[in-house]
Amino acid sequence: INLIETGSITEGFYVTIKDAKNYSTFTTRSGNIGLCIDVKLIKTSGAEFHGSFTILVSVPYNNTGNINEETLRLYTFNEQTRIWEEVPNSWANPANKIIYGTLTHLTLIAPFGTTTFAQTNNNAYCYPNLCKKGSTIYFTNVSNTAIIKIYNIAGELVKDIEVDESIEKWDIENIASGVYIYTVTGGCGGKKIGKIGIVK
């Protein structure tokens, strides 16, 4: 990982980086490329730095399996809510195999992406799950031309998505917090039913 200071840190510091794949608060989630790191800023006095800052992070990677590299985004782990939160405006450069993001705090950092088309819908899933309003839920492991339907707990249809590419998403706006049910059917066959949790 490379950290490029943007000018908001004025005192001396150094960086500690640990492989966090087995970190106690790391929860496995589909779409990860096997990379999770725990990054901290340490002041020259030895104390951890908790002040405000903005840092551009560049994270190299080398193994994505069947994950579409262009969909890779950085996520940070919120230890209070135990939710992986997407870093706004992070992006991947598949040619150089580097993911970039601008952070205002350091914690567990991991890249997640979506897989290519599946043969059936049986193993479809969405992430992140739980999801905050105002963010985006991605669906993956769906078959080509599948139909994704999302219902509220009363059984009312709130979203209908026709799959026409391997990256399917639902932008969460103007919708109540709570539990929603999704179904993935059609396409190459198979069916998946799951739940989505949406919080404020």
First and last CA, distance: 31 Å
Structural class: mainly beta
The strand order across the widest sheet is 2-3-9-5-6
Strand content: over 45%
DSSP helix fraction: under 10%
Number of helices: 0
Spans of at least 5 consecutive residues whose pLDDT stays below 50 are none
The biggest beta sheet reads: 5 strands, antiparallel
Mean pLDDT: 82
| SSE pattern, N- to C-terminal | EEEEEEEEEEEEEEEEE
What's the shape? globular
What's the total count of β strands? 17
- The oligomeric state of the chains shown is single chain
Please compute the radius of gyration using only Cα atoms: 18 Å
Walk me through the structure.
The mean pLDDT is 82. The protein has strands at residues 2-5, 13-19, 37-43, 55-60, 73-78, 83-86, 91-93, 98-103, 108-112, 125-127, 131-132, 136-140, 146-151, 157-162, 168-171, 178-186, 192-199. A five-stranded antiparallel β-sheet has the order 2-3-9-5-6, with no helix packed on it. It has 200 residues and is mostly beta strands.
Brief sketch in words of this structure:
This protein is mainly β and 200 residues long. It has strands spanning 2-5, 13-19, 37-43, 55-60, 73-78, 83-86, 91-93, 98-103, 108-112, 125-127, 131-132, 136-140, 146-151, 157-162, 168-171, 178-186, 192-199. The protein has a five-stranded antiparallel beta sheet, with no helix packed on it.
